[in-house]
């Protein structure tokens, strides 16, 4: 065992000695003075010149660089234009000031020479007067005492002439001063001529103002007329398109047909001795007899009827023998909304017909003492009669009615605001209901109430907004 380990230990020792010798050879110990950053003349490196970038060899400009360049150029141009405008205004103001100074120098003292001439003339006259006074004084001293009175008279006359001359000169100076300093005055201009020219200018300006005002007023008048016509057209079209009296829906009867009607089923009995029926209608066509509102039973199908006939409105109670008619109520050529009311009282026997809120017809003694029978049938746009067989599709719906409907008397158009009261309404109440721009549809009857009482369209009639 010792023999094998001895050679290994010798090998390890020899390897360590070899490494130590190699390490000592690599490390050199320098005991001299250390100098750092020492520059010698011979060792100084020469700087190498670097190539500068060429001025025209710059990189391509981006769109933002171009935009900034354009903004800078526009700002410079704006500054130059403002400076140029400022210089131009200064030059123009200077030239205008020079012109004004020349004008003042030329015309400002125009009244001076005339005044100086007048002053020279006044001075000459005074000098002449003094000379005459001196001469007269010497003459008086040499003459006898009897001539002193004549000399004093001559002196007084000379003084009067001097006073009158001074007064005339003063008035002339005042006139010239007024003419020189007046707004319309000028050099050598007569004051009368200046005043006349001033009056003419003022008259011309006034006439021009009046003419311009007339033209403006005529233009405004024509525009107002055109606006009024347009407003009337708009109102007419709105009346045709929209529902009246604040109503929100209407019954549409598209054509005259015995199958098209609306049945009404009131919740209270119709056994009344007075009533008022009102409605808005817009007929598309009116025949010899067009039924709007009809109530009847098997004994008398014509207890209540509100009808149209060409241009007339008709109202019957208890049959056609008791008829109230108003002519000229309907215009067949114009399809427009019409408000109709029929009122009747059994006590007075007075039946009245209202159109557009006005009483257009009334008849006394109509079914006086009569009471409407209950249990009848109420229709809008048709009436039950015995002219025609009952259609299976429609059905009579009421026992005792053996007839049906007739298309010749059917209503075609629109209907809204159908109400019925068990009393006679007052004139103010009917006027309120008939106001097309009002809220008459909010007032509902106590027998038939529009929008509350059941109304069933048949055969194509329908509710529309």
The secondary-structure element order is HHHHHEEEEEEEEEEEEHEE
Contiguous runs where pLDDT drops below 50 for at least 5 residues: 140-148, 184-189, 389-402
Q: Tell me the radius of gyration.
A: 61 Å
CATH architecture of the domain at 250-464: Sandwich
Placed side by side, the strands forming the largest sheet appear as: 10-9-8-3-12-1-14
Total number of strands: 14
Give the rounded overall mean pLDDT: 76
Distance between the termini: 126 Å
SSE-based structural type: alpha+beta
Stated plainly, the CATH topology of the domain at 250-464 is called Jelly Rolls
Question: How does this structure look, described?
Answer:
The structure is a single chain. This protein has 465 residues and is α+β, with helices and mostly antiparallel strands. Among the domains are: 82-141 and 154-189; 250-464, Jelly Rolls (Sandwich). The chain is 42% helix and 18% strand. It contains 6 helices and 14 strands. The protein has helices at 2-26, 63-107, 111-142, 148-181, 191-241, 427-433, and strands spanning 250-253, 261-265, 274-285, 290-296, 304-309, 312-317, 323-326, 338-345, 350-355, 358-363, 377-380, 412-421, 454-458, 462-464. Strands 10-9-8-3-12-1-14 form a 7-stranded antiparallel beta sheet. The chain has a 7-stranded antiparallel beta sheet with strand order 7-6-5-4-11-2-13, with no helix packed on it. Strand 6 (312-317) and strand 7 (323-326) form a beta hairpin. Helix 3 packs antiparallel against helix 4. The radius of gyration is 61 Å and the shape is flat.
SSE topology sketch:
Elements: H1 2-26, H2 63-107, H3 111-142, H4 148-181, H5 191-241, E1 250-253, E2 261-265, E3 274-285, E4 290-296, E5 304-309, E6 312-317, E7 323-326, E8 338-345, E9 350-355, E10 358-363, E11 377-380, E12 412-421, H6 427-433, E13 454-458, E14 462-464
Antiparallel strand pairs: 1-12, 1-14, 2-11, 2-13, 3-8, 3-12, 4-5, 4-11, 5-6, 6-7, 8-9, 9-10
Helix pairs in contact: 3-4
């Amino acid at each position: 065992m010792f023999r094998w380990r001895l050679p290994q230990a010798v090998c390890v020792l020899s390897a360590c000695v070899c490494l130590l010798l190699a390490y000592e050879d690599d490390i050199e110990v320098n005991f001299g003075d250390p100098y750092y950053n020492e520059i010698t003349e011979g060792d100084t490196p020469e700087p190498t010149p670097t190539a500068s970038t060429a001025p025209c060899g710059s990189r391509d400009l981006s769109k933002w660089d171009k935009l900034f360049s354009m903004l800078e150029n526009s700002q410079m141009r704006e500054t130059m234009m403002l400076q140029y405008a400022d210089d131009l205004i200064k030059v123009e103001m200077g030239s205008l000031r020079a012109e004004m100074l020349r004008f003042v120098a030329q015309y400002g003292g125009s009244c001076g020479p005339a005044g100086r001439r007048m002053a020279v003339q006044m001075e000459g006259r005074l000098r002449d007067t003094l000379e005459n006074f001196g001469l007269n004084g010497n003459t008086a001293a040499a003459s006898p005492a009897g001539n002193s009175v004549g000399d004093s008279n001559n002196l007084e006359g000379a003084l009067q002439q001097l006073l009158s001359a001074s007064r005339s000169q003063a008035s002339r100076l005042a006139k010239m001063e007024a003419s020189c300093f007046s707004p319309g005055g000028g050099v050598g201009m007569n004051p009368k001529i200046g005043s006349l020219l001033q009056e003419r200018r003022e008259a011309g300006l006034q006439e021009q103002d009046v003419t311009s005002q007339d033209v403006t007023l005529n233009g405004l008048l024509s525009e107002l007329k055109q606006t009024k016509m347009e407003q009337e057209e708009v109102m007419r079209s709105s009346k045709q398109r929209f529902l009246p009296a604040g109503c929100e829906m209407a019954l549409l009867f598209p054509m005259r047909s015995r199958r098209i009607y609306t049945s009404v089923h009131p919740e209270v009995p119709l056994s009344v001795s007075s009533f008022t029926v009102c409605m808005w209608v817009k007929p598309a066509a009116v025949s010899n007899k067009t039924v709007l509102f009809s109530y009847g039973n098997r004994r008398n199908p014509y207890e209540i009827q509100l009808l149209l006939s060409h241009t007339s409105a008709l109202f019957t109670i208890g049959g056609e023998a008791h008829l109230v008619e108003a002519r000229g109520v309907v215009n067949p050529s114009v399809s427009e909304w019409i408000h109709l009311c029929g009122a009747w009282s059994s006590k007075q026997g007075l039946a009245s017909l209202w159109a557009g809120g006005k009483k257009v017809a009334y008849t006394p003694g109509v079914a006086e003492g009569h009471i409407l029978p209950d249990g009848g049938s109420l229709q809008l746009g048709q009436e039950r009669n015995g002219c025609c067989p009952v259609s299976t599709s429609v059905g009579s719906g009421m026992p005792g009615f053996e007839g049906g409907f007739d298309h010749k008397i059917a209503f075609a158009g629109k209907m809204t605001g159908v109400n019925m009261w068990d009393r006679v309404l007052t004139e103010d109440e009917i006027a309120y209901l008939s106001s097309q721009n009002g809220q008459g549809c909010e007032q509902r009857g106590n027998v038939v109430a529009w929008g509350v009482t059941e109304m069933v369209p048949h055969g194509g009639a329908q509710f529309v907004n």
